[in-house]
Amino acid sequence: MEAEMREWCVALPKVELHAHLNGSVRDSTLLELAKQLGDRGVIVFEDVKDVIMKNGRSLPECFKLFDLFHILTTDHDTVTRITKEVVGDFAAENVVYLEIRTTPKNNEAKGMTKRSYMNAVLKGLKAVEDVDAVLFDSILRPDETLSRTPVGDLDGVTKKKKIYVRLLLSIDRRETTSAALDTVNLAMEMKDQGVVGIDLSGNPVVGEWETYLPALEHAKELGIPITIHCGEVPNRKEIQAVLDFCPQRLGHVCCLNDEEWKKLKSSMIPVEICLTSNVMTGGAPSLELHHFADLYNAKHPLSLCTDDSGLFSTSLSNEYYLVASTFSLSKAELFRLAQGAVEFAFVDDEVKKFLRAVFEHVARKGLMP
Ligand SMILES: [Zn+2]
């Protein structure tokens, strides 16, 4: 039963709205790149080797890997490589739409600007080979699009998997107001190159809301959709300010008090739920006690997401499986959850139409309940 359900969750077409590029790197790639850094004397390979090869890492071990990601992503070619692999990995488990978020990095010593970092990401998207990644500049052809989604596989026909990919630019909480504004302006500049939104993320105990607010307000004025990591720690003042700001989506929403829950529920702001991530980082006490159940029962708009699939040793299929096994959701309910996430994507209506058609096709053909 368990194996059958796991397989079903992999076959289910899925929409991923909260995935950080760096945290989604494969362990095998991480190991290889860490070894190279070790050989060059940049890091001590033995220090990180065991952490990389471990399944189910502790929070301090996760932070050790964060440091490694930071060093790795100062290199353009590495950024290109991991982008390419991350898209391939999501497509392999039948994710049909993926929003990757990443912080454009400025590193003068390494000859990296926010723009050159993003160019390396774009190069990675264009280099995807094993799957058909539909980027910003692709021309949509309805018949072809439908026949090359995971639906093709479910019909028993093996074709190249198709995945729509868009980008969110993250403002890191360590950044200054001016750096945050640069990121928003870059997002505007790259609107025609697949950037569809702005994210606020990073260490939740670092930085002040007031620092990023001018940049977030600027994004709002420019009409760029915004998602914010909210309530990872119980910061009453900031949670209140975020809810008042009313972004298009919220990530996590772990540490809310009764009044804030009420406010969130009446706002109907869609929430990106990251079960494994929240349990591993202590945002939720356990899977069973995760706030997914409360929001789901309240019919609050939700989408299941991985956050950092590499870092937390999970996958989007696994997150669906966890919801099924922990909260006893039926296949039909899981299907509706996946289907519903299309509506919260920051992508244009044209692409949403295709994504809706993918789910309708699967449902009509009886391939899914
Ligand atoms: Zn996140």
Describe this structure in words.
This protein is an alpha/beta fold and 369 residues long. It has one domain: TIM Barrel (Alpha-Beta Barrel). The chain is 50% helix and 14% strand. The chain is built from 17 helices and 9 strands. The chain has helices at residues 2-11, 27-39, 45-53, 59-72, 76-92, 114-126, 142-147, 151-154, 177-189, 209-222, 236-245, 258-267, 275-280, 292-297, 316-327, 331-340, 349-364; strands at residues 14-20, 95-102, 132-134, 162-172, 195-201, 226-230, 249-252, 271-273, 302-304. Strands 1, 2, 3, 4, 5, 6, 7, 8 and 9 form a 9-stranded parallel sheet that branches. Strand 6 (226-230), helix 11 (236-245) and strand 7 (249-252) form a beta-alpha-beta unit. Helix 2 packs antiparallel against helix 3 (45-53), helix 5 (76-92) crosses helix 6 and helix 9 (177-189) packs parallel to helix 10 (209-222). Mean pLDDT is 91; it is low at 139-156. Bound molecules: zinc ion. Zinc ion is lined by residues 18, 20, 201, 229, 251, 307. Residues 13-356 form the Adenosine deaminase domain. It holds the Pfam family A_deaminase. It catalyses: N(6)-methyl-AMP + H2O + H(+) = IMP + methylamine.
